[in-house]
Design goal:
With about 400 residues, this protein is of the alpha+beta class. The chain has 3 domains: about 1-60, Ubiquitin-like (UB roll) (Roll), CATH 3.10.20; about 70-135, no CATH class; about 155-410, Receptor-associated Protein (Up-down Bundle). About 75% of the residues lie in helices and about 5% in strands. It has a 4-stranded antiparallel β-sheet. A hairpin with a 5-residue loop joins β1 (about 1-10) and β2. It starts with a strand and ends with a helix. Residues about 45-65 have low confidence and may be disordered.
């Protein structure tokens, strides 16, 4: 009998690790499957490292945090360059050393040095990456592990780089689209605040001296200006307190779940969020399947990386149905998460043995919908913000001019 060290996911989604004894790797996989475990790592244990099976199903040890902050674009560039070096048959330690020497970020250079040291000590590349969960996501580590086991690490890294680059491109388009409305809103708030707290108090003191009976719009504006000028610190502190309170609530499980549900149900914003989440689901799952990850572990990984708790719960239900032997399309059709045409494409992909290709096509469709809906949303938000700022400034101008007109009529 041989000993195999494994890391796996239970049906409840809990990560476990331990050692199992079996005649060979296939027998170990079958034994783990019979226990309801989905292995993400399975490697032989030799020499003094052997332990008994008493360690089975113990919770995985907490992962050590990464030092410093590493930008996403740095990870994307590293993945592409590492894939090219491995395709050129350069060993992993030498490739890491070469990339580390040219890395400008001190934080990422330190991470690569730690990974290289771990690999030199005999650790798997995926295990060394897993020690830095703030830099390399669960999806990233899982795909690298599959590439190691299948002997296709360069290809898997190129697939992973394609995925990261595509996500960066989509994220960049969204940021570019919303930057103009955000600028308009910020500029309007700053302008109105300066007028109310600096300019208008001096002007109104002069108007009050010239006329004791001010029009109603002028009185309202004078009251708002006085309130902001005299109590700005209290108002600012209160706004900060409210913002911090909301942020802390959304950081809780109940708050995050409520926000995830609200994002999908909000008018105009909901369809954009849903299309983005479904596109991410299809692209991530398609990339995992194309890289050789079996469907059930791939669904578990996608469940934890989709970024929306409501959709993650539905994906967990899909995974349970798939565990029972059903196809992917059947539970998706029953849940009604995807449009019927999309589910039909997935069913065709399963029947033809091209599930990964169909999932990636579904991702393209959903991402096109997300882009179109984002453009529509921005085309509505930008004029609305400009109109709102214009109405506020217009009211302020009218409130200032009314007493002047009143005094001019009194003189005549």
């Amino acid at each position: 009998m041989n000993a195999f060290r494994y890391q796996a996911i239970e049906s409840s989604g809990t990560a476990v690790q331990g050692v199992i004894e079996a005649e060979d790797r296939r027998s170990a996989l079958q034994l783990l499957g019979s226990r309801g475990l989905c292995p993400s790592l399975l490697e032989p244990v030799t020499g003094r490292a052997k332990v008994t099976e008493a360690a089975v199903a113990q919770p995985a040890a907490p992962e050590a945090p990464a030092e410093g902050r590493v930008k996403r674009k740095e990870v994307t560039a590293f993945t592409r360059e590492m894939g090219a070096l491995l395709a050129a048959a350069i060993p992993i330690p030498q490739a890491l050393e070469s990339l580390g020497e040219g890395e400008e970020s001190g934080a990422f250079r330190a991470v690569m040095r730690q990974i290289g040291e771990a690999v030199n000590k005999g650790e798997l590349f995926s295990a060394a990456l897993e020690a830095h969960p703030k830099v390399f996501s669960r999806l990233y580590v899982s795909m690298i592990r599959v590439g190691e086991e299948a002997g296709l690490l360069p290809k898997v890294m190129n697939d992973l780089a394609d995925l990261l680059e595509h996500e960066d491109e989509v994220r960049g388009e969204v940021v570019t689209a919303v930057s103009y409305p955000v600028f308009v809103l910020a500029f309007g708030l700053v302008t109105v605040t300066i007028l109310l707290t600096v300019v208008l108090p001096r002007l109104f003191s002069m108007l009050q001296e010239m006329s004791h009976e001010l029009p109603l719009p002028t009185v309202i504006l004078l009251g708002v200006s006085h309130l902001l000028a005299e109590h700005w610190l209290i108002i600012f502190t209160a706004l900060i307190g409210v913002a911090v309170g909301i942020w802390k609530y959304l950081s809780t499980e109940a708050g995050a779940e409520l926000w995830d549900k609200a994002k999908l149900r909000l008018p105009l914003i909901g369809p954009v969020c849903q299309a983005a989440a479904l596109g991410r689901f299809a692209r991530t799952l398609g990339t995992l399947v194309r890289s050789g990850v079996s469907l059930l572990p791939a669904l578990k990984i996608v469940e934890q990386t989709i970024g929306n708790r409501m959709l993650a719960a539905q994906i967990a239900r899909v995974a349970e149905e798939t565990r029972g032997g059903d196809s992917l399309a059947a539970p998706l059709r029953a849940l009604g998460v995807f449009p019927r045409a999309v589910v039909q494409m997935i069913a065709v992909g399963e029947e033809s043995g091209r599930l990964d290709e169909m999932l990636l096509k579904v991702a393209d469709i959903e991402e096109r919908h997300m882009r179109a809906r984002t453009k529509t949303l921005i085309s509505l938000i930008a004029p609305a913000l400009i109109l709102a700022v214009g109405l506020i400034v217009g009211f302020m101008v009218i409130a200032i001019l009314l007493p002047i007109f009143k005094m001019s009529h009194a003189i005549h």
